[in-house]
């Protein structure tokens, strides 16, 4: 994946997704808990990386359990993964039972209404075979899931078997901050919950959760972000391999005199004579406008600051220090020293938002 390989003519930028790195990351995370199964969260079109390439690659590597957010994402995943267990995190919307059953999807039931609706549908089925589902227990997020007390009150209730519950899960509030006392509190509450449902599998850990002590690991890991190269342990060296690389074509290079500005509303002024390069990529491609005057791109390995406001289709770089900058060359916006976490920081957001915002206008290249 060299930065000198030009973007195909007619396109502004290329997004390269390294499926071998993705699979290596899945194996690294799986090794954090060798006695647990390692699933994969592939919601939001596999964090912007493309479900249709990502899901089969993980399946071929041995991943058997997948999580998406929406029923529609589950249906798309089912077409790619005829035999996988696919859980739908956002639960069971009204009147969706038939679609879930028809596609063999497993709702993550997030309140009593969803639980009883799913169980009632199983009662009416001929033959009366329940379709599997998960029970989501809320241990602190106050977002989705039954409160712990409500879940404990359901222990031993026949509705759990009638609904085909095969997994009990919860979600960590601050897993990427290992010192946050919330982690231990949630882990303790979740231990009580799983003890009340003997025989069910249990899942608590997202990417960062797989790096916490044993308390978070249980039977099934649910990493998403780290599969795609995000650092599950912020503040420490990133153990994950980078998965995405974003490169844009340099359209032209110009020299400006001291005092000249660039871009809309003249939000940058040259402190001295500067060389500027204009890239064929902008916020319409999913590169965040909030990185104006704060982000960087690499030209021939040299970090070059983004100057002025990012436009819809164009970004201006100060390439004074980059002798390789030339018309038809490329600049790397994500890749090498510019990992998704640092791009997120420069844009005042998180790497998750950078990934899931990746646009559809690039040429996309998948490498095995
Ligand atoms: C998105 C999500 C995950 C994956 O989280 P990452 O931080 O991306 O690893 C796991 N569990 C639930 C419930 C989620 O919503």
TrEMBL record:
Pfam families: Ala_racemase_C, Ala_racemase_N. Its EC number is 5.1.1.1. InterPro entries: Ala_racemase (IPR000821), Ala_racemase/Decarboxylase_C (IPR009006), Ala_racemase_C (IPR011079), Ala_racemase_N (IPR001608), Ala_racemase_pyridoxalP-BS (IPR020622), PLP-binding_barrel (IPR029066). It comes from the Bacteria. GO terms for molecular function: alanine racemase activity. Substrate binds at residues 143, 312. Residues 243-367 form the Alanine racemase C-terminal domain. Pathway: Amino-acid biosynthesis; D-alanine biosynthesis; D-alanine from L-alanine: step 1/1. Catalyzes the interconversion of L-alanine and D-alanine. May also act on other amino acids. PANTHER family: ALANINE RACEMASE (PTHR30511), ALANINE RACEMASE, CATABOLIC-RELATED (PTHR30511:SF0). NCBIfam families: alr. This is Alanine racemase. It comes from Methylorubrum podarium. The gene is alr.
